[in-house]
Write a structure and sequence with these properties.
Blueprint lengths: L3 E4 L1 H8 L3 H13 L3 E4 L9 E5 L2 H5 L7 H15 L8
């Protein structure tokens, strides 16, 4: 199924260089945020995990709409604070 991956903690560790504990913590945090589900079952064996990204389409096809007015104001303020008077007479 799209958005699913069967893997293991040791495989993720080998590919990322992260420790098993860091991966477990990261997966738990992503589950709490309802970004993915992480299932380790006897049907998959004790070493395998089924990771499913929740609402895959939202992540794959997310369109970002820039907030141009907010960006204009922020940039204007930045530009004003970066400008200094040119007092060189020469």
């Amino acid at each position: 199924m799209r958005g699913q991956l069967i893997t293991s903690l040791s495989t993720i560790s080998r590919l990322t260089g992260l420790s098993i504990q860091q991966i477990r913590t990261g997966l738990k945090n992503l589950e709490k945020l309802q970004i993915l589900t992480d299932v380790s079952t006897k049907e998959l064996t004790n070493l395998a995990r089924l990771i499913t990204i929740i609402n895959t389409d939202a992540w794959l096809y997310k369109k970002e709409v820039p907030n141009k007015e907010a960006n204009k104001e922020a940039n204007k303020d930045l530009t004003k604070s970066q400008q200094s008077p040119n007092n060189n007479k020469g």
